[in-house]
Design goal:
The protein is of the alpha+beta class. It contains 16 helices and 14 strands. Helix 5 packs across helix 6 and helix 11 packs across helix 12.
Length: 385
């Protein structure tokens, strides 16, 4: 079994993640990463900025809202992602369906516990049907507020566990998981989420034909291996939010090739992707919170080194990161004037500092005084400068 050292893994990361050689469109940037994290709307734009030449906000808006080549979809680990439209056929029957089933069980139980339904599943089915009917004659979609008023059945407030309250949005989210709805045109700025919920059949024409669950997982694993391989079974189980049995079946159907990793773990590569990869050109990147590169693996030591606890919050969410030659060496923040400031956690060679400073200047110019807010702040971001 071939050994693949951390240095080569970082070289592959630079090339595959479009960080050392930028691409030409938001679609290409998304495909490079398989999917983009979209929990925070600004992350989508900043993840593209880090990977696309001459990007504008309008470029991303075009892909998301006009051409609809990129689509927001709740999927793995109940997380919102931006998918290439053609990958939805794999996500819907696999990762999204798994989360939808779990959500249905919890919501049905909550409805009974809260006392507004004797049969939670029957209530959820009626609520879902009401929303779909309310959108049937609205191809441009409707806001969540409009839908609450149009479908009183979903205008509920459920508090069944300490600190956890859910409202109409939970029903809309479930309809998104099952591909009945989609977060359509955003009525706010690029940094906020104010979607017009839209029937998926109105949003995409024609609708992709879903694969079987096994084929869906196989395609997700195939694309992940191209973007993030070599990765371990544990990486894939975590990223997909599924079981080892599902991951092993997908790896077997792909004829994935095992390789040894530094530290003794076994990673997997696609059979046509086993050639040695090198990358000698120095590079730097500034990535946003929850960027797919920093969130791509469960085993992160090869690129975080000793900095995991400084760059992630207690719930495992990544803050901003500053990268040099395939390693996260710090983070970035903005000052009161919107200027991007570096906060490095280790000594970086002068060449690396120059590259990082150039990226900070470039991002400052792109943001043009706008300060990006986030609910995900790492200890390094919160530390006094």
């Amino acid at each position: 079994m071939r050994h693949l050292a951390d240095d080569e893994r970082r070289a592959r990361l630079a090339i595959r993640h479009a960080l050392s050689a930028p691409v030409d469109s938001p679609e290409a940037a998304t495909r490079a990463m398989t999917v983009l994290h979209a929990t925070e709307p600004a992350t989508v734009y900043l993840s593209c900025w880090a990977r696309v030449r001459s990007l504008s906000v309008a470029n991303v808006d075009r892909a998301l809202h006009h051409d609809r080549t990129l689509v927001k979809q709740l999927a793995m680990r109940r997380t919102l992602f931006v998918f290439p439209a053609d990958l939805l056929a794999a996500a819907w029957p696999s990762a999204s369906a798994r989360v939808a089933a779990t959500e249905r069980t919890r919501m049905a139980q909550d409805a009974v516990t809260a006392g507004f339904a004797e049969d939670g599943h029957e209530w959820l089915d009626r609520a879902r049907a009401g929303v779909i009917e309310a959108l049937a004659d609205h191809p441009d979609g409707r806001s969540a507020l409009d839908l609450r008023q149009a479908v009183p059945l979903i205008d509920v407030k459920v508090a069944v566990r300490p600190g956890e309250v859910w409202t109409a949005g939970r029903v809309l989210t479930h309809l998104g998981l099952t591909a009945d709805l989609v977060r359509g045109v955003n009525t706010g700025g690029w940094h906020v989420s104010r979607p017009r919920w839209t029937l998926m059949r109105h949003w995409l024409d024609p609708l992709p034909t879903p694969l079987t669950p096994a084929a869906g997982y196989r395609e997700l694993v195939r694309r992940w291996l191209f973007s993030f391989g070599p990765g371990t079974e544990e990486d894939l189980v975590w990223w997909l939010g599924t079981t080892k049995a599902v991951v092993r079946a997908a790896l077997a159907s792909l004829d994935a090739v095992p390789v040894g990793l530094d530290g003794g773990a076994t990673g997997w590569l696609l059979p046509d992707d086993v050639e040695e990869v090198g990358h000698d050109e120095p590079w730097a990147a500034l990535l946003p919170v929850l960027d797919p590169t920093v969130m791509g693996w469960k085993g992160r030591d090869f690129y975080l080194g000793p900095h995991r606890d400084r760059l992630f919050d207690r719930r495992g969410n990544a803050g901003t990161t500053a990268w040099f030659n395939g390693r996260a060496v710090g983070c970035w923040v903005q000052d009161a004037a919107g200027v991007v400031r570096l906060r490095l956690l280790e000594e970086v060679p002068a060449e690396g500092r120059d590259l990082l400073t150039a990226e900070a200047d470039r991002l400052t110019a792109w943001l043009d005084g706008f300060r990006v807010g986030s609910v995900y702040s790492s200890p390094a971001m919160k530390a006094t400068a």
